[in-house]
From TrEMBL:
<keyword id="KW-0833">Ubl conjugation pathway</keyword>
<comment type="similarity">
    <text>Belongs to the ubiquitin-activating E1 family.</text>
</comment>
<dbReference type="GO" id="GO:0005737">
    <property type="term" value="C:cytoplasm"/>
</dbReference>
<feature type="domain" description="THIF-type NAD/FAD binding fold">
    <location>
        <begin position="22"/>
        <end position="334"/>
    </location>
</feature>
<dbReference type="InterPro" id="IPR000594">
    <property type="entry name" value="ThiF_NAD_FAD-bd"/>
</dbReference>
<comment type="pathway">
    <text>Protein modification; protein sumoylation.</text>
</comment>
<dbReference type="InterPro" id="IPR000011">
    <property type="entry name" value="UBQ/SUMO-activ_enz_E1-like"/>
</dbReference>
<dbReference type="InterPro" id="IPR035985">
    <property type="entry name" value="Ubiquitin-activating_enz"/>
</dbReference>
<dbReference type="GO" id="GO:0016925">
    <property type="term" value="P:protein sumoylation"/>
</dbReference>
<dbReference type="InterPro" id="IPR045886">
    <property type="entry name" value="ThiF/MoeB/HesA"/>
</dbReference>
<protein>
    <recommendedName>
        <fullName>Ubiquitin-like 1-activating enzyme E1A</fullName>
    </recommendedName>
</protein>
<dbReference type="Pfam" id="PF00899">
    <property type="entry name" value="ThiF"/>
</dbReference>
<dbReference type="GO" id="GO:0031510">
    <property type="term" value="C:SUMO activating enzyme complex"/>
</dbReference>
<dbReference type="GO" id="GO:0019948">
    <property type="term" value="F:SUMO activating enzyme activity"/>
</dbReference>
<keyword id="KW-0539">Nucleus</keyword>
């Protein structure tokens, strides 16, 4: 058994050397939270820009084991936002190119790679999910996200999805029934400063049926529904086109039709928005398939931070859909069907 393979009934204790490496975090989170991270195995599926940023942060934070799955080769496009890759890696498998650079970030973390996505179907997927604590899927189509989310639910595993479409980014999480310690800022001086809290999450297919019916004009406006609904519209476009993203302005009319239909079904307050802005649709029709490094950095950084929160069970994680607008630099969290 390797140093990282503690069983759930007999979790590994942090050594003095590890305590020295993670000293600052232990002061921040507490030893128990760091211990949870130390014993966690995380599965990351697909290694594009968001994943590289997320992996960097969770590996530096001190998880126990990382399993990376990706069957694709490094392309020239990957060199922009995927900072694990170099010019000489083009044509190599992404996981093979990334492995040594991930390991060099933190030698205390065990890194495993799987360079075939055939393992992401049927019983192979079941076996893979059963052996990890948390699954994080990045930059994949909605139908595959829903399928993997359902597998995670069957085995009681935490699920995260994240990605970018040009200047837009998103994070979704399904943490099942999640217990955590939340700071109690309203407590009087002598009272305990934190309280136990529980949040009940919903799977992605349920979240996507969210209706905005009972929200006030102000609440709706604060959540910037155009961005979130455009992300959902791009997913629908992908589903219709066998995983392909819009990549030409001639795709704009179809994307607009899909977005309008989603807006109508979501029953969004018409005083706030009656149609998805034409300019947003136009931009997405030409940029959704491309990665922008700063957007990947923001979304990947937030995704990593939230994964660590969920593992540490300190503070409330995202509940449950975060949408980022790189045009303004603003992000909003919408509680969808929770």
């Amino acid at each position: 058994m390797s140093a990282h393979e503690g069983s759930k009934s007999n979790p590994l204790q942090i050594t003095e050397d590890e305590a020295a490496v993670y000293d600052r975090q232990i002061r921040l989170w507490g030893l128990e939270a760091q211990q949870r991270m130390r014993n966690a195995t995380i599965l990351v599926i697909r290694l594009r820009g968001v994943a590289t940023e997320t992996i960097k942060n969770i590996v530096l934070a001190g998880i126990g084991k990382l399993v990376m799955v990706d069957s694709e080769d490094v392309s020239e496009e990957d060199l922009g936002a995927g900072f694990f890759y170099r010019d000489e890696d083009v044509g190599k498998k992404r996981v093979d190119a990334a492995k040594a650079r991930v390991e060099s970030l933190n030698p205390l973390v065990t890194v495993e790679t799987i360079s075939t996505t055939s393992i992401l179907g049927g019983e192979d997927l079941d076996g893979l999910v059963q052996n990890v604590d948390l699954v994080c899927v990045t930059d994949w189509d909605r139908d595959n996200l829903v399928r993997i989310n359902e597998t995670c639910r069957r085995f009681g595993k935490l699920f995260y999805a994240g990605g970018t479409f040009g200047l837009l980014g998103y994070i979704f999480c399904d943490l099942l029934k999640h217990d955590f310690i939340s700071p109690d800022r309203s407590a009087p001086k002598d009272a305990p400063r934190s309280v136990k809290a529980t949040a009940q999450y919903s799977p992605l297919h349920m979240a996507l049926r969210h209706r905005w019916t009972n929200m006030t004009k102000r609440q709706t406006k604060e959540l910037n529904p155009a961005i979130l609904l455009t992300i959902i519209a791009i997913w629908e476009y992908q589903s219709i086109h066998q995983g392909e993203l819009p990549d030409d302005e001639k795709n704009a009319p179809e994307l607009e039709t899909i977005a309008s239909s989603i807006l109508s079904a979501a029953d969004v307050n018409s005083q706030v928005i009656t149609r998805i802005p034409q300019e947003l649709i136009q931009t997405m029709s030409t940029t959704a398939a491309h990665e922008f490094s700063p957007v990947c950095a923001v979304v990947g950084g937030m995704l990593a931070q939230d994964i660590l929160k969920a593992l540490a069970a300190r503070e409330a994680p995202i509940a449950n859909f975060f949408a980022f607008d790189g045009n303004t630099g603003g992000g909003t969290v919408c509680k969808m069907n929770m």
